[in-house]
Structures are given as structure tokens and as C-alpha cells.
Amino acid sequence: MHGQLLAGVAALAFAAGAPAQQHDPSMHRHDPSSGDANYQAPGAAPSRDPREPVRFPEELRLHTLANMRDHLLALQQIQESLAAADYDKAAEIAEQRLGMSSLGLHGAHEVAKYMPRGMQDAGTAMHHGASRFAVAAQESSVTADFRPALAALSRVTASCVACHAAYRLE
Question: Beta strand pairing status for 52-54 and 167-169?
Fold first, then answer.
């Protein structure tokens, strides 16, 4: 049990170094052999953004961007809680700020009117996934096995990545 916790904390600590890499342009090159449509050869001029533009009224766009920044903050706080083995706190943050319970706070029904179906689906998957993570994190409090919670959290962030890779707000 203690070894599992240390392995999880080590994984989170390793991941904490990732933000520095995010600002290194050389880390953003993609392998052309992978079929990645976003591949940019070293030294090439920037190409146009291939993501689908989604037009929101300005006030709603700003509101949505603020919500997404809060989602990032919530994910950071969840990881911090997991590292401290405070699974109940991680579950509470996930459900209240990202899960199905958070939809009213974000004005989800108003925002959805402007989203293409795929973007709606990605958002719904993220919110459902966050609620499932909350349950898995609570179970970790009892079982001391946090791997199912980490797997559930990975699915939450996968929804975020998929949406941000496909769409951009304008």
C-alpha cells in the first residue's frame, strides 16, 4: 500500500515538470510519420490553426474561457489532493467544479447553444468523467488503491485534450 502511494506521488511529481516542457517550442514538434495533421517541420513557417473555429458572443466567450481556466485550477487542486492522499477532497473538488453537479455554475445550457455537436459531446464526456472520477476517488479512501482514480482522472483530461485539439473559441 505504501509503495503504491509513493509510486503515485512520484508519478505526480514527474508530471509536475511537464509545464516547463510545454513552453519549449522543440517539444511541440510532432512526428510526421504518425500521420499527425498538426505536424510542423523544424524551421517551417507556422501553418494556420487546423481546429474548427467556434464563435461565441464576446461576453459568453470570456465567461467560457474563465470557466476553462477554473477547470485547469481544479485539476491542479485534484492532483495536489491525490498527492496528499486526501481522496475525499479530490472527489469533492471534482464533483463540485467539474462534475455533473457543476453544470449550473457554468451556465452549460446557455453555452451549449453555440457549440457544435462534437464539442458538446466532449464537454458532456468531461463532466460525466469528472463525476465518475469523484466516485473512484472516494473508493480510494476505503481501498487505498488510487490507480482506478488516476485512470478515471486520465479519462477526464483526455476529454479536455480532445476538445482543445478539435475546436478553438472565437
Answer: parallel
Distances (CA, A) of 150 to 31, 99, 107: 28, 16, 28
pTM to 2 decimal places: 0.73
At residue 108, the pLDDT reads 84
Are both 13 and 63 inside the same structural domain?
no
Tally of CB atoms within 10 A around 67: 16
**pLDDT tens track for 7-62:** 443 444 434 444 444 444 444 445 544 445 555 566 666 679 999 999 999 999 99
Residues 31 and 99 grouped into a single domain = no
Asked if 76 and 98 sit in the same domain, the reply is yes
Q: How far is Cα 139 from Cα 148, in angstroms, rounded to an integer? A: 9
For residue 10, the one-letter residue type is: A
Residue 59 CA to residue 63 CA, distance in Å, equals 6
